[in-house]
């Protein structure tokens, strides 16, 4: 039931994203059309100069003809400039469209990532398999390999064995199991130090913090299903 609702939510989210991108493209297209319609005609100046030639055919002096030629050249320059402006505006509109679409895509990705991170924080890491190999000093977490030190392997092994027995170990108990002494003779800080070193060895803070849970006033445990743990 939950998977069905999640699928439906994902489909709705995808439709919203597509609708948003289409809306952006449509709005920018309408804006481009209105902008190009309201731009002055590139040949408007040339038309005025031509009309000036026609209406003033009596201007036959050298100075008048030279002035009309300058006006004609100015009209041609204005037409070329306006055409280049149209091209620049067209390129800028395409660039703005691409940026807005990219912004929407990144926004959706960030929202999805935040939701996934929140779900991980609430539920912990979904571990399908945890294989601890003492001989190779390696841990395989969901097929990801972590190379650990001897001390880190021992600490993780103790936590794994306790998880399979549904036990929560305090720092003193962890230190006692590893050192072979009674827990009452061990310091709580020594076990806490071992947990910190294990987390540091795992490297990824998110993985280590969510994999190894610290239960207040009780101790430490692996926040995974005990059935996925294997030790060789």
Keywords:
single chain; 232 residues; alpha+beta; Arc Repressor Mutant, subunit A; two-stranded antiparallel ribbon; 7 helices; 68% helix; disordered N terminus
Q: Would you give an account of this structure?
A:
The chain is of the alpha+beta class. The protein folds into two domains: 2-123; 130-231, Winged helix-like DNA-binding domain superfamily/Winged helix DNA-binding domain (Arc Repressor Mutant, subunit A). It has seven helices and six strands; from the N terminus they run αααβββααααβββ. The chain has helices at residues 2-38, 44-55, 62-123, 150-164, 171-179, 188-202, 205-211; strands at residues 130-133, 138-141, 144-147, 212-215, 219-222, 229-231. It has a four-stranded mixed sheet, covered by helices on one side. α4 crosses α6 (188-202). The protein is rod-shaped and about 120 Å long.
Instruction: Note poorly predicted spans.
Output: 1-5
> Gyration radius, to the nearest Å?
37 Å
Helix content: 55-70%
Q: Identify the strand order in the major beta sheet.
A: 3-2-1-6
Tell me the count of domains. Answer: 2
Report the count of strand segments.
Answer: 6
Report the order of strands and helices.
Answer: HHHEEEHHHHEEE
Mean pLDDT, as a whole number? 76
What is the global morphology?
Answer: rod-shaped
Distance between the termini: 37 Å
Beta percentage is: 5-15%
| SS class | alpha+beta
């Amino acid at each position: 039931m939950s998977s069905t609702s999640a699928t439906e939510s994902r489909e709705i989210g995808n439709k919203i994203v597509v609708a948003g991108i289409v809306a952006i493209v449509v709005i920018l297209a309408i804006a481009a059309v209105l902008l190009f319609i309201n731009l002055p005609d590139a040949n408007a100046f040339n038309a005025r100069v031509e009309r000036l030639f026609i209406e003033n055919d009596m201007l036959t002096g050298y100075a008048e003809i030279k002035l009309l030629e300058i006006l004609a050249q100015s009209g041609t320059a204005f037409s070329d400039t306006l055409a280049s402006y149209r091209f620049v505006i067209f390129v800028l509109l395409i660039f703005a469209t691409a940026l807005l679409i990219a912004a929407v895509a990144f926004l959706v990705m960030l929202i999805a990532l935040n939701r996934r991170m929140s779900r991980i924080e609430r539920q912990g890491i979904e571990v399908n398999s945890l294989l601890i190999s003492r001989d190779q000093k390696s841990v395989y977490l969901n097929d990801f390999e972590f190379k650990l030190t001897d001390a880190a392997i021992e600490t993780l092994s103790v936590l794994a064995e306790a998880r399979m027995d549904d036990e929560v170990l305090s720092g003193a108990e962890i230190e006692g199991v590893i050192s072979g002494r009674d827990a009452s003779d061990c310091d709580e800080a020594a076990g806490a130090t071992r947990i910190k070193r294990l987390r540091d060895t795992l490297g990824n803070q998110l993985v280590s913090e969510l994999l190894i849970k610290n239960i207040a006033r009780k101790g430490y445990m692996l926040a995974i299903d005990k059935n996925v743990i294997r030790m060789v």
